Amino acid sequence: MALDLVTIPCLTDNYAYLVHNAATGETALVDVPEAAPILAALQTRNWALHHILITHHHDDHIQGTAEIVAATGAKVTGARADAHRLPPLDHAVGEGDTVVIGGEACHILDVSGHSMGHIAFHFPASDLVFTADSLMALGCGRLFEGTPDVAYASLMKLAALPGDPWVCSGHEYTAGNARFAATLEAANPALISRIEGITAMRAKGLPTVPSRLSDERATNPYLRAHLPALKAAVGLPNAADTAVFAEIRARKDRF
């Protein structure tokens, strides 16, 4: 039985997520940008919160943690490597670890790049992966701490996940990411179609995340740096994939 997923808009453009096992009543929260909308979502559904899963240390992903813990008693799981700058952890995890959340195995992936120590939570049975600011809808997070080599390896790890999981990323940046992607692959039919869908969703005030990994593989330029067309688009036809990724990220930083 797949876990139920709830996407919660927070702050100006952040997202938190609830995952819930209807059979057991167990609920987990992924990231805590602010407490009020999360507590409201729990109250509306009459769900008790048991776990908080933190992807990385940036304030807009953790600043509501103490209030949520005080209100719910939920236990906090986060990266062992980043524990020194996270809220107090009840469970410290790292690459290759598996924890059971909502009765389902959750695999921990190190997806450093945007920040070092950034982790993702993969629930293969429910086709969910929580990537926060590593792999994003049509984008990736700015490289504040990691090198292009580190970030690209993390993205390739996520791109290689089996099946077609929903990518639950951390921000509503999709429209801007789409505009940038179109500067590189204006004739990509999958991208053209996706932009049309994004425009319609945002016109209705709907979130554009989560997104399917298959859509990211087909349209996200950071996952396509190995393709000759992308290499040519940035003027690096013979460059290594990582160098092309670095150039794409640099262009987005200036976009």
List keywords for this structure.
255 residues, alpha/beta, Metallo-beta-lactamase, Chain A, six-stranded mixed beta sheet, 9 helices, 34% helix, globular
Low-pLDDT stretches are: none
User: How would you spell out the order of helices and strands?
Assistant: EEEHEHHEEEEEEEEHEHHEHHH
| Secondary structure category | alpha/beta
Strand order of the largest sheet: 1-2-3-4-5-6
How many helices in DSSP terms? 9
CATH topology: Metallo-beta-lactamase, Chain A
Percent of residues in β-strands: 15-25%
What is the residue-averaged pLDDT?
97
The CATH class name reads Alpha Beta
- How many β-strand stretches? 14
CATH architecture: 4-Layer Sandwich
- Radius of gyration using CA atoms only: 18 Å
Structure explained in plain terms:
Helix 5 packs antiparallel against helix 6. The chain is globular. The protein has about 260 residues and is an alpha/beta fold. It has helices at about 35-45, 60, 65-70, 150-160, 175-185, 190-205, 215-220, 230-235, 240-255, and strands spanning about 5-10, 15-20, 25-30, 50-55, 75-80, 90-95, 100, 105-110, 120-125, 130, 135, 140, 165-170, 210. The strands form three sheets. Strands 1-2-3-4-5-6 form a six-stranded mixed beta sheet, with helices on one face. Strands 7-8-9-10-13-14 form a six-stranded mixed beta sheet. A two-stranded antiparallel ribbon has the order 11-12. The N and C termini lie far apart (about 45 Å). Helix content is about 35%, strand content about 25%. The mean pLDDT is about 95.
Give me a quick take on this structure.
With 255 residues, the chain is of the alpha/beta class. It is 34% helix and 24% strand. It is globular, with a radius of gyration of 18 Å.
